[in-house]
Amino acid sequence: MAKYGLVGRNIGYSFSKTFFSVKFEKEKRQDTYHNFDIQSIEELPKIFEQNADLKGLNVTIPYKESVLPYMDRVDKEALKIGAVNTIKLHRDGRLVGYNTDHYGFAKALANLFPIHKKTALILGNGGAAKAIAYVLDTMDFDYKVVTRDKTDKTITYKDLTREVISSHFLIINCTPLGTFPNVHECPNIPYHYLTDKHLLFDLIYNPRETEFLKKGFAKGARVSNGIKMLEFQAKKAWKIWKS
After folding, report:
1. Do residues 72 and 174 both lie within one domain?
2. Catalytic residue set
3. What are 90-111's pLDDT values in tens digits?
């Protein structure tokens, strides 16, 4: 019997615990999955101290980047991305960090092709957004990252003109805006410029239909939530833990 879990902040909404608990029950495994809700990444070592039978962890907002210094080794893809969402605990106590978000997104996105043109807007610049950018790079997308504050590598929401929206056909929400219980929130983009040529992808899966997706659907855009991405990345994490 082994213990697995999810590390994040305010993660009562998370589907991961349900996903793995159902998996373990179906497979008649004695393993368990737990939510470790912490207010600071500095609390991470306590989780390992207090759970000697822990074999693996998923990592979610807001710790995918700040968890890196706690790893004894980071997989090369996770290192390139700059974010870890899966931790494997080895028998000798070493912590090895991986990223399965990029795998999950790539698999989910592949099911949504064709896209009118390989152009995209990534909303947000956290750990999940970095995994999305990694995938878009490998798929030869031309994309822009949208953040609240302008940097030399990003544009702001105020820069989203009709021209920008009408020339970027995949829009991915990597922010937590719209996550349960704040279901009426959504990224501040000019939704009235969307068309039936657009595809809106929301990494959020609770609720299944976010305000972001509702507004896109109302304009004729294709929409997809993050549930398939979560399932793909969770299955990949399980393979890593069992390897």
Report:
1. no
2. 64
3. 999 999 999 999 999 999 999 9
